[in-house]
Amino acid sequence: MTKAVAAKLSKAGRALIEIAEAEGKTITYENVYPGSVFTHKILKARHKPLYSKDFPKPKKPSILERFANVDEVYLKRAPKGSLEYEALQRVKKSESADQEKARICPPVTDRSYVERSDFTLHDLYNDIRSVMEWYSIATYLMRLLIFSNSALVTYTDRLDWEYYRSERKKFRSCRYKYCLNMFAIEGDNIRQGDVKRTDSRYCCDTCRKADYDATERYKKHGSYLPVYFYVEQTTEHIGDTARMREVAKPLEAIERRNAKGIATSPMKGKQQKRAEKPEFKPFLTVNIATGEVKYTSENHLYRY
Fold first, then answer.
1. Which of 45, 172, 244, 261 is 20 to 30 A from 32 (CA-CA)?
2. 256-268 as b/e: b if 16+ CB within 10 A
3. DSSP state, 149?
4. How far apart are CA 66 and CA 61, in angstroms?
5. SS3 247
6. Which of 85, 92, 81, 55 shows the shortest CA–CA distance to 70?
7. Tens-digit pLDDT profile for residues 97-146
8. DSSP 165-211
């Protein structure tokens, strides 16, 4: 051990050194500082923090500051025997155990999982009610125009629910448990769109195939839900996905590009070139533009 290191040691550290020398042990960090992080290999951050008025540099920085905020790429590539490697292995085992528990006892279904909700029952109710309200208001205005003030006593805000019942019977909900869409089975309806057969059970072929897949998942896993819904992804997988699609760029480069009016995308890949604007040429007639008639003039502006 060097003299500089020995001079900075506390009294307890000097006592440990004397004991180690008396017992004939090699003086190492592990003997002097038992249980210290310096006895293992640890990674260092490859960037420097930017201090400012809001984030000033501490007068007595911690000795662990240079080991904080290590990039995820270097953490994943941590060498075997380092603290980061051991931590990653423990995280992987913990997350793998949680995934295995979710696979062993999966939820049968979940009401929060919805795949399609383009036109739900609430949307149908709002559309029918809007039609009824507009019809009642239009009828009342016509009475006012015909009977003037004597029609005031005929105004009522009561809606015709018989009309709602008749229109509601013209629609059917999709049988697929994770689809909330409504589809029409009679042509004379308020949407005036495509109509399916009266014995149809699904709003589209996609839902029909999805319902078959959900039944097969229940037979295989005991759950109608897809596996990715109740089995959470590991931290390593999420990080790999982000690094595959995103790229980190220096703040100075981003500010320079923004000053020039160039937007900086965090996504990887070659940016598509902007299509060049076609050159605009005026023509006197359509025949000249299509080339059916050639026009020659002394004026050079019309020589196209």
1. 45
2. eeeeeeeeeeeee
3. G
4. 10
5. coil
6. 85
7. 999 998 999 999 998 999 999 999 999 988 888 877 777 777 667 777 77
8. HHHHTTEEE-SSTTB--EEESSSSSSS------TT--SSSHHHHHHH
